[in-house]
Write the structure tokens for this entry.
Amino acid sequence: MILRISDNLRILRSIINSKIGVLAMLNSNKHQAGSLLISEPFMIDPNFKRSVVLLVEKSEGGDIGFVLNQRSDLLVSDLIPDCWNATFPVFVGGPVGKDTLHFIHRCYDKISSGIEISEGLYWGGDFEGLKMLINSNQIRSDEVKFFVGYSGWGEDQLKSEIEQNSWLIENNYKPDVLFVEDEENLWKEVVISLGPKYAHIVNFPENPSWN
């Protein structure tokens, strides 16, 4: 009998649901601004494969977020020449608007601006002021994170994907996880942090045909 990749995917999902019920249980949390969206282990879309997305806006018209663990080869100083001291890495926030630069931060005490996503975490703000602070070495790398592009979903699109178990939702996490330097292992670390019921998900193959 020959199995296509899609057949293997259905079989593996069936095993997960029947033996441990993981995917059915993961989305008991409701997504909201500040939620972490963790892609399911078999996500095929290269933009979101094994990704962790910070949701910064949830509205009736759609949702916006940034992929936290897709680092580009660029530094902020490569994109903003007059921000010469900005050796901060730039991450690919998603497939939408890749000609735009965004940032999240937890240094409201220094720039006094931004949209509060969750307690102590902000989206955007006074970029000119931030540049001055960076150039004078007053901003640490664990206080701000930059993205080119963003992830966007239309009305009810993300809700539908969550109902299809494409995303795990985490609302209780330490803010430090958003600014970790080891972004290559972020997906695994976040899944493991969900607890022993979910930790073994990290051992599932990225491609079901490898199983």
About this structure: The first strand starts at residue 36 and ends at 39.
